[in-house]
Fold these 2 entries.
Entry 1:
Amino acid sequence: MARLEVSGVEVRFGGVAALRGVDITVDGGGVSGLIGPAGAGKTTTFNVITGLQKAHGGRILLDGNAIGHLPPHRRARLGIARTFQRLEVFGSLTVRENILVAAEIRRRWTRDGSNPRRVADDVVRQVGLRDVARERCDALPTGMARLVEVGRALATRPSILLLDEPSSGLDEAETDALGALLTRLAGDGMGILLVEHDIELVMSVCRTIHVLALGQILAVGTPAQIRSDPTVRAAYLGTESESDARATAGALA
Ligand SMILES: Nc1ncnc2c1ncn2[C@@H]1O[C@H](COP(=O)(O)OP(=O)(O)O)[C@@H](O)[C@H]1O
Ligand SMILES: [Mg+2]
């Protein structure tokens, strides 16, 4: 049984169909990717999974149980965590404080006796931010603030982690470290769905890649299968700005 199963999901904005029968499966063991041109419906898919956007059809199963009727906070408690495409951190709090807030909220949900301070310290180390742990987030470069958001999600000890373009603003070394972290987490059993425009990162860390275009899943496969799929390259060409599309299609070639 898949950890997370999205099946036949439909979303409409007025008369516009944003998602049309979307199927996605996420398992532990390896990172799953979700790629597609701008406007394809990736963020909308995350919003449907987390409950921020109502679906007009389809089902969402977590470990085999339907969760599509639950409000966002209930889904979070069941183990779904996410980061946002537009960065969401508390700027006036330090790196460690941002992560500590999440660890404290989790302890209140679970009453599992975990020590939030210890969890926060572990997570700060895990995301590689020990040197800046006491810096305010609004003083950090965007890339590091993104890692804080990843850390805050991890501090809730999720079983499913949804990442919406986490590498924007990261330099090459930070991107490599993020890739290694995701691979490690998935290896430990976490279900990870990665939305990312850095195709090289997606190709290097994902075990399975879903390609979304105009609200429909166009292809699912291994990185090698997706790279050699001509319909995937065609989906990118002609939908983004010429130079972006060429860069992406080049990376796929
Ligand atoms: N709240 C909304 N109201 C109306 N249209 C929306 C809304 N959110 C997204 N859309 C539209 O749905 C489509 C998918 O958007 P989105 O999920 O943000 O794509 P992606 O994340 O793949 O770039 C786009 O055409 C976008 O304009
Ligand atoms: Mg998006």
Note: Residues 94 and 135 are 5 Å apart (CA to CA).
Entry 2:
Amino acid sequence: MSETEIRDPGAFETRLSHFLFERSEEARAVRVGEKEVSEQAEVVARYSDLFTRAQLEALAEAEHQAKTADASADEVERLYRLRKTCEGGIVAAELAEREDALENEILAARVVWKNEEMSLRTAQARTAVLDTYADRDELGELQADESARFNSKQLALITAAETLEAELSGQPDPIKRSEEEKALSLRELESALAVVSERLDERWSELRERWFDRLLGSGRDDLPRQHQVAYMRRLSPLASTYTRERATEVCLDTLGRLGFDLMAMPNIRLDLDDRPQKSPRACVIASDPPQVVHLITRAQGGLHDYEALLHEAGHALHYGGCDPALPYAFRSLSRDHALTEIYSYISAKIVNEPGWHEHYFSLPEKTARENAEAGLFIEVMLFRRYVAKLQFELEFWGRFAHEGGSEKGYAEHQLAATGVRYRPDWFLSDMDSGFYSADYLRAWIRSAQLRASLLEEVGEDWWQSAKTGDFLRSLFAEGTRPSNEEIAARLGFEPLDCAPLLAELGA
Ligand SMILES: [Zn+2]
């Protein structure tokens, strides 16, 4: 096929699936530490024929024709996703070499702490498990200093991507562009969430004082630095109960009670090994759903391992459970991540159930309740942190066109929401593209609605009932087709009804 040949949507979709498979497998190899050098640019170059302006125009034309010919909503949506993927591919292709170069520089960066040289990822992973408060601050600062050295390059890349996206989409306003993709108002979402966050003020200050003291000790700063968060999040002092060794077995059994036998699903490939360059953040890479789905975690000890494994298992079961007969666009492509995060959230919520702690760790009822509250403490902290992230990102992108990207307001929002001092220059490390924070928050609202509905339909035992599994399986089968907000309607809620979320977090 010549370089200039333009594909029809069906042929584009097929070749796209091959490209995304190879790209996902490459990203996986780097992420898990099998490869030290990222070669995304090489994969992108091999498929450069997919991502041309001429191809983008052809897809836009096909979408326009489908609309005027009154094609089904599914068909129009499928073409929309193909066009937006092509658009994103052009941006990625044009920036791939610079992205690779920056990622490789970051991978090669080292900090030296107590005579030991380590990568930034290892330093980050280590900070979370150091036993001494001062050590965590010290190594955390070293790691953050070194990360901040890459800020100007990172900002230059973000700016280049933004300029290209504005040009290709014809929408110069990054907030409006995101709103069109997500099909909702980000500011309305923010307003609804700000109310929830505010109504949790009292509950949060009580949880915060109790758990900051318990987890960080009485000698802590009133307002601890950001380097203490990952350590708290692991609930490391509870690590003797929630051991690294048992994490896999307990989580697999938990899912088994819902009717999901992960070991018997060859399409979900588990990678639970410990490797020095493996990112400490758990993730799922769905290379070709439902046939090839990777579930990757790096257990370090503590309740967080269990929560992270259950969270990622929710994604894996979603992608691995979609109907193979769906078009590729509805198995693998989505407008955003807000749908799949509902399923990871509902799965991870199991660690907030006292009964789960009693059952697996033979704890007396009172201890089980306390430890489940620890899970809730983390969830309220993260929820408020994400509302603050969304608020900062709306400000960041709102002023981006006339001011460029700046850190203004980042640390202030985080401090007010969490009582933790974040470094202003951490703002880029803390920001994912495309308002991912909003997707998490939509999933927070929806998974609380889902749990409320399961409590109603299945009962208190929802977290260990095969009926829950059956209901989830029927949702998974639809793949990535529905929007997060469409699930609200299935559950009988309005999209922005935050009452279940407030009830759950304020409990
Ligand atoms: Zn997730």
Note: Residues 73-108 form the longest helix (36 residues).
